[in-house]
Design goal:
The protein has helices at about 1-30, 40-70, 70-80, 85-115, 120-149. By secondary structure, the chain is mostly helical. It folds into two domains: about 1-80; about 80-149. Helix 4 packs antiparallel against helix 5. The longest helix is centred in the middle third of the chain and has 31 residues, at about 85-115.
Length: about 150
């Protein structure tokens, strides 16, 4: 029982730290620095901050949900060890990895083929699109494999 309590406390700490760092990075990315060297990286810092804030917020939401209903935590842990679900998750992750790697490789080929420099905003949107597409492939694969198997 104490092991479960320490896991829950570490989840709380991780969620709070991720949320705090995410908010901090988002604010730093939103500030318009006068140094020209920082300008191309502001959107990247802001995006990483937003991602960390969302993941940290989700972890805190899960922590408080499971703290209110410990039986749901026990059920979720048992379901997470189901071999069928693990196989579906691994296969979906493999599909998402293949798509993400392929899109990244194609983007690198495109950048290598262009003679002009690309806008940092264009690069940002393409990279964000690759991340969103990879996540969408994972979710679609999960749903598809759940219906098939």
């Amino acid at each position: 029982m104490s092991n479960q309590k320490s896991n829950q406390n570490s989840d709380l700490i991780k969620g709070a730290v991720m949320l705090g760092i995410g908010i901090l990075l988002f604010i730093i990315g939103s500030i318009n620095f006068y140094a020209a060297a920082w300008r191309p990286y502001l959107h990247l810092i802001e995006g990483i901050g937003l991602f960390l804030a969302v993941v940290g917020g989700w972890n805190l939401f899960q922590y408080f949900r499971y703290k209110k209903n410990p039986e749901a935590l026990h059920k979720a842990r048992i379901e997470s060890m189901d071999e069928r679900k693990l196989w579906i998750q691994y296969r979906s992750g493999n599909n998402a990895f293949k798509i993400g790697i392929t899109l990244t490789y194609l983007f690198l080929l495109m950048v290598g083929a262009t003679e002009n420099s690309l806008s940092t905003d264009l690069i940002w949107w393409i990279l964000a699109g690759i991340v969103v597409t990879t996540g969408a492939v994972y979710v679609i694969s999960l749903v598809r494999y759940e219906h098939i198997y």
